[in-house]
Give the backbone structure.
Amino acid sequence: MPSPQFTKPWHGVPRDQIHWNPTILEDACIGCGTCVTGCSRLVYRFDFERKKPVVIDPLNCMVGCTTCANTCPTSAIEFPPIESVLALEGQAVVRHSVEDDLQQRHDLLAAPSSIPHPDHIVVLAVAAIERPTPEVLWLTLAPVKPGECFCEFTPGQYIELWEPESTHLSRSYSIANAPHGDGSIVLHIRRVDGGRFTAWAFDGMRVGDHLKARGPLGAFTMRTPATTPLLFIAGGTGLAPVLALIEQQVRFDALRDMVLLWGMRRSADFYALDALRTLLALAPGLHVRLVAELADDAAQASERMTFEAGTVLDALARNPTVLTGRDLYIAGPPAMLRDLTQALTAQGIDSRRLHIDSFGV
Ligand SMILES: Cc1cc2nc3c(=O)[nH]c(=O)nc-3n(C[C@H](O)[C@H](O)[C@H](O)COP(=O)(O)OP(=O)(O)OC[C@H]3O[C@@H](n4cnc5c(N)ncnc54)[C@H](O)[C@@H]3O)c2cc1C
Ligand code: SF4
Ligand code: SF4
């Protein structure tokens, strides 16, 4: 019988709705019994006559665990693809359940505060909040005290930001500018339906609020030799780290050959056209292609800023030569990144040319 101890909901999802259990490949199994005795959750029993393990209580299996498969000497145990579990982690119910669980079991789970750590944490003030479209916040943060800032960071990095009333509600946001010396940073925050942090950011954040921030974090930074042309691909607010990288390149070599493909759902969603026009004026080597799935005539095109319908994948398929000889820097929501990397890998693009910044699972 499945044990209630092991079959309780997994981060809010009923256990019987999750397909995660071992399957024995009988032809490969030599009947050593390691899986049976090694599993503490009584998933297996042993058929002593046939000398084979039997999966009797599959729901007892811990979601995501593959210990028995890892320790099987003949690789005779299979599991569903881990992507099925990662997909669950993309759901709000799972993310929020983990967050709540951490708080409820705070005393048990808290690491000793005496452990030294390298975090750089500062308090920043909300200096300006703009809403270029209803779905995006353009947020400017400034230092509160001199010297307590992210005055130096590498373009493409991100920070973690806390909601002021909460000790634990924090999310990551990419810095959308190169360092300006005064420690001010710009973030682009997209509204997420049912999202906890963005609900506060859109409805509760005020100019003058003080926010705890940690950073700079991340390795989505320029790693390409100065002579190699670049292709940036951004989905939604994935534009933020890409803008920082382009601003950096404009400072070093305004003539550098750069193409930006920026994908959005609707053409009215392109929230940073003025910033792009400013960069285009500074960088003769930059070309911008705006790509909207639901196209209308809201975006105003120009010689080096064109507008097309479809997805960024469609845009690449229409003009595959844009990939030739370029290093790629790609940022945005996980689903877009997954589709893009699959397509690019299938086209034989060397993974060393791909630099990817994912906004989530
Ligand atoms: C390194 C990094 C950099 C990031 N930079 C930015 C940025 O510059 N701008 C920005 O807007 N966001 C960025 N994000 C995403 C951001 O950290 C939050 O995940 C997002 O704002 C949602 O937070 P929330 O609390 O409102 O939603 P949650 O309460 O955490 O989640 C609600 C639901 O929305 C889903 N969800 C969470 N994030 C996304 C997303 N990005 N796209 C689609 N669905 C999502 C969750 O899986 C969940 O199902 C970045 C994430 C990472 C890891
Ligand atoms: S560990 Fe592998 S070989 Fe040993 S009984 Fe289990 S499945 Fe068979
Ligand atoms: S994966 Fe882990 S929990 Fe599941 S059967 Fe194997 S050892 Fe047991």
